[in-house]
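Running this now, will post back.
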Amino acid sequence: MVEVVPTIVPENKRALVAVCYVITLLGGFVLFLISENDRTLKFHAFQNIVLGIILLILWIISPFTLCLTGLLGLIVWLYCVYGAYMVYSKGDWRSFVAGFVDNSLMK
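Update: finished.
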């Protein structure tokens, strides 16, 4: 049986996690470094890092693909901003990469 990581962020750390989602990749690394042994913060840090890598790849290849991937990069970043809102207001957010994070990075 697979252990499910609790993803509800405590109220005193919601603003920090939300800001890290807006900053994407760099925010994920910062959150990972300061999370110590908190599995919830590590989950959100890894989820943020994966989304940031996707965003970085889309923006790197965007000059070569007629700006379509640049538009997709903007959509991914806006998705991260939505995640920041969800974490700040409700304390939890699982993106489309959450399954990958749970199964691969949180073991």
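The mean pLDDT is 86. More later if anyone needs it.
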